[in-house]
Amino acid sequence: MDDILITDAIIAVAESSETGSGWLNPGNILVKDGCIAAITATPPQDISLSAQVVPAQGMAVIPTLVNAHTHLSQTFMRGLAAGRPLLRWLKELIWPLQNAMSEEVLELAALLGLAENTRCGAGIVVDHHKITHAPTFTEAVIRAARQSGLRVTVARAWSDRGAGAESPQLILEELEAWFSQFKSGDPVTCASGPLTPWRCSAKTLQTTHHLAKQYGAFTHIHVSETAEEVATTQKETGLRPVSWLDSLGILDEHCQIVHAVWVDEGEIDLLAENHAPVVHCPVSNAVLGSGIAPLITLLQKGIALRLGTDGPASNDTQDCFENMKMALCFARASNLDASAVSPRQALNMATASEGLAIGQPADLAMVRLDSLWAAPVHDLDSALVLCARAADVEALMVDGKFLMSAGELTMIDEEIILKESKRAVQTLRRKAGLDQ
Ligand SMILES: [Zn+2]
Questions:
Q1: How far apart are the CA of 141 and the centre of ligand 1, in A?
Q2: What's the pLDDT at 95?
Q3: Distance from the CA of 74 to the center of ligand 1, in angstroms?
Q4: What separation in Å is there between the alpha carbon of 9 and the centre of ligand 1?
Q5: pLDDT at 4 over 90
Q6: Which of 327, 232, 254, 343 minimizes the C-alpha distance to 284?
Q7: Distance between alpha carbon 193 and the CA centroid of its chain, in Å?
Q8: What's the gap in Å between 372 CA and the centre of ligand 1?
Q9: How many angstroms is it from 202 CA to the middle of ligand 1?
Q10: In angstroms, what is the span from residue 252 Cα to ligand 1's centroid?
Q11: If you measure from the C-alpha of residue 312 to the centroid of ligand 1, how many angstroms do you get, rounded to a whole number?
Q12: pLDDT tens string 389-430
């Protein structure tokens, strides 16, 4: 792999006494063997003659965004909520469409979703993968993930209670088969994805979590998205959902809590004490009228926070820039405090990082800041978080390889995927009974 030198860029680095602002401007990044070999104010001299030079004037170079929770199958279910709250939306639309999906259609939906994530600058995606009629459906998503070149974790969804319940034995066997398939360092990995506390038994939650940890994987679960769900768990167990997960002994740094909209102070303390990370999905929670997660309290308690768009059926895009801005906006609006959550805090949440650094894998996004909506730039953090849009992403590099370059995707043919997707969705609607 030839060296790559990105020149004349505005580089997001960790805030320090040297850089002050957390930006090196202008700066240069040398990429060697998939890693960041140098970040310098003046172009490094010892570069190979074959190095690819990429000028980045007017562009911020930041760590790739992380889309820490989505459902790629829902790329074919955008704009359908039509005012329905979570449970009605699931029963009337999402479940019938999911049941009507074939493996080929699922692969196409996943590929379209991953193309969108690439365009949005997301180099890391966690897909809470719900269509698990047979292992071949999971294989279809894995094929799409490999084609995209992104770092993708397929969190295989499961439930062993209620509609669509699977046997605990099947769940464990299938998870173990996936866990053992992926080697360390593979950009595509697998996780356990219990749907929600109220659809999972205590024992299977415990055994799957234990299994995931044995393989260096994790549990990824929707928790307390709506007040109604909290009431259900309370009625069944006498405990609120986070307290119940804690009582099972599975609340730890390997248990990703998605949503946490309706968590009380005691539960927030439990999340903090057990170092359980929270995935915040502000746009999805607002679209479905579920509520606003207590982001500021979660931040104050030192909880590891990530941002997720959630599935395109409840967002209705995977625009990580919009999500980052809305995380900041909702936190400020709900606290009546314009100083709550700084743009830099939002950027660090969105990238799960404090900036680019030497020795890291070369996972970075190049974002134009010279657009009509971002220029002139007074403050780089604000320009990036409050002004820039997903459409300003000019390039995305993962593991030293450009997956998008000069505004063009390099791994996925967008034109073909879009054409095939339109055709597939017409058939899917008929099959799901939406067009009678
Ligand atoms: Zn979700």
A1: 16
A2: 86
A3: 10
A4: 36
A5: yes
A6: 327
A7: 14
A8: 34
A9: 21
A10: 20
A11: 9
A12: 999 999 999 999 999 999 999 999 999 999 999 999 999 999
CA 221 to ligand 1 center in whole angstroms: 8
Q: Does this model's pTM top 0.70? A: yes
The Å distance, Cα 289 to ligand 1 centre, comes to 14
What is the average per-residue pLDDT within 99-103?
94
Compute, in angstroms, the gap from residue 313 CA to the centroid of ligand 1: 9
CB 217 within 8 A of CB 189: yes
Q: What is the whole-number distance in angstroms between the Cα of residue 125 and the centre of ligand 1? A: 13
For residue 18, pLDDT over 80 is answered with no
Q: Ligand 1: distance of its center to the CA of 172 in Å?
A: 22
**SS3 annotation, the chain:** CCCEEEEEEEEEECCCCCCCCCEEEEEEEEEECCEEEEEECCCCCCCCCCCEEEECCCEEEEECEEEEEECHHHHHCCCCCCCCCHHHHHHHHHHHHHHHCCHHHHHHHHHHHHHHHHHCCEEEEEEEECCCCCHHHHHHHHHHHHHHCCEEEEEEEECCCCCCCCCHHHHHHHHHHHHHHCCCCCCEEEEEEECCHHHCCHHHHHHHHHHHHHCCCCEEEEECCCHHHHHHHHHHHCCCHHHHHHHCCCCCCCEEEEECCCCCHHHHHHHHHCCCCEEECHHHHHHCCCCCCCHHHHHHCCCCEEECCCCHHHCCCCCHHHHHHHHHHHHHHHHCCCCCCCHHHHHHHHHCCCCECCCCECCEEEEECCCCCCCCCCCHHHHHHHHCCHHHEEEEEECCEEEEECCEECCCCHHHHHHHHHHHHHHHHHHCCCCC
